[in-house]
TrEMBL record:
One of its GO terms (molecular function) is protein-malonyllysine demalonylase activity. One of its GO terms (cellular component) is cytoplasm. This is NAD-dependent protein deacylase. The gene is cobB1. The lineage of its organism: Bacteria, Pseudomonadati, Pseudomonadota, Gammaproteobacteria, Lysobacterales. It comes from Vulcaniibacterium thermophilum. Substrate binds at residues 54, 57. NAD-dependent lysine deacetylase and desuccinylase that specifically removes acetyl and succinyl groups on target proteins. Modulates the activities of several proteins which are inactive in their acylated form. Zn(2+) binds at residues 114, 117, 141, 144. It holds the Pfam family SIR2.
Length: 234
C-alpha cells in the first residue's frame, strides 16, 4: 500500500462548476483583483461587499457536487492506501467525496468566525443564493458584537500553523506526490512541490496547462483532474 499526498488547487474543483479564483470575479467584483478583495483591509473598508462576495461563492459551493476526480482520491483511501489531501481550496468537495483528514491551507468558506474575539459562528443558511454583485451585511458576533468574517486565509495573513506543519510532515513521510490544478503562484503553498522534489519524492502534476509547478514535476499529465485522477485507479 502506498502513502500518497495530493496537493490540490482551484483547478481540482473547476469541473464541479466552482469558478477558479480568478474566474470568481464577476459583476460588481469584476472591477477588483482577487488579491485585493480577499484581504482584511477590503473587509474593514466595505464589509457588506466582501461578505456578499463570500456568500455568493458559498452558494456556488453548496450547489456543486464532487466529480469523478474527487471520488477517485477518496477511493484510493478506501482501497487501503494512506492518502493525505492538502488543499488550497476553501470548498468542502473533497470531504463530500469521502476523503478524510483534508488539510485546508487557506481555510474553509463554510466556516466563519468573529473578527474580534474569534468565536466560531454559523451564519444563517443561504436561503436564496445572493445575486452576483449583491452586498450583504455580515452578521454580528453573539459574544462580543464584532463582525463575522469568512473562515478563509486572506492575502497578507499567515496560514494556520497546524495546517502548514501537517503539510510539511505529510510530504516528509509520503512515497509520492500528485499535484492537481494549481497555477503555483500563491506562496507559501506554491513552494510545496519543490519541497517534495527536494525530499526525493516522485512528483506527478495533473493540469491541462503547464503551470508554475511543471518545472518541479517528474511527470506532467496534461489532463483535466477528473480524467487524470481516475487514471490513477487503473
Ligand atoms: C498572488 C501571490 C503573488 N501572493 C502571494 O503569494 C501572497 C504573498 C505575497 C505577496 N506578494 C508576494 C510577492 C512574491 C511572493 C509572494 C507574495 N501570499 C499571501 O499573502 C499568503 C496567504 C495566501 C492565501 C490567500 N488566500 C487564498 N484563498 C483563500 C481566500 C479566498 O479563497 O477568498 S489564495 C487562493 O488563490 C489561489 C488560487 O490559485 P490556484 O488554486 O492555483 O488557482 P488558479 O486559478 O491560479 O489556477 C488554476 C489552475 O488549475 C488549472 N485547471 C483549470 N481547469 C482544470 C481542470 N479541469 N483540471 C485540472 N487543472 C485545471 C489551470 O490550468 C490553472 O493552472 C489559491 O491558493 C486559493 O486558495 N500569506 C502571507 O504571505 O502572509 C504573510 C505572513 C506570514 C507570516 C505572518 C503574517 C503574514
Ligand atoms: Zn466576537
Amino acid at each position: 500500500m502506498a502513502h500518497i499526498v495530493f496537493l490540490t488547487g482551484a483547478g481540482m474543483s473547476a469541473e464541479s462548476g466552482i469558478p477558479t479564483f480568478r474566474d470568481a470575479l464577476t459583476g460588481l467584483w469584476s472591477r477588483f483583483d482577487a488579491e485585493r478583495l480577499a484581504t482584511a483591509a477590503a473587509f474593514r473598508r466595505d464589509p457588506a461587499m466582501v461578505w456578499g462576495w463570500y456568500r455568493w461563492r458559498a452558494a456556488r459551493v453548496m450547489q456543486a457536487q464532487p466529480h469523478a476526480g474527487h471520488r477517485a482520491i477518496a477511493a484510493l483511501e478506501a482501497h487501503g492506501h494512506r492518502v493525505e489531501v492538502i488543499t488550497q481550496n476553501v470548498d468542502d468537495l473533497h470531504e463530500r467525496a469521502g476523503s478524510t483528514g483534508v488539510v485546508h491551507l487557506h481555510g474553509e468558506l463554510l466556516r466563519s468566525r468573529c473578527i474580534d474575539c474569534g468565536a466560531g459562528e454559523h451564519p444563517d443558511p443561504i436561503v436564496r443564493p445572493p445575486a452576483d454583485g449583491a452586498r450583504e451585511e455580515p452578521p454580528r458576533c453573539a459574544a462580543c458584537g464584532g463582525l463575522i468574517r469568512p473562515g478563509v486565509v486572506w492575502f497578507g495573513e499567515a496560514l494556520p500553523v497546524q495546517a502548514w506543519s501537517r503539510a510539511q510532515d505529510a510530504l516528509a513521510a509520503c512515497d509520492r506526490v500528485v499535484v492537481v490544478g494549481t497555477s503555483g503562484l500563491v506562496q507559501p503553498a506554491a513552494s510545496l512541490p519543490a519541497l517534495a522534489r527536494a525530499l526525493g519524492k516522485h512528483v506527478l502534476e495533473i493540469n491541462p496547462q503547464r503551470s508554475g509547478v511543471t518545472e518541479d514535476a517528474d511527470e506532467h499529465w496534461a489532463l483535466p483532474a477528473s480524467e487524470g485522477l481516475v487514471r490513477l485507479l487503473e
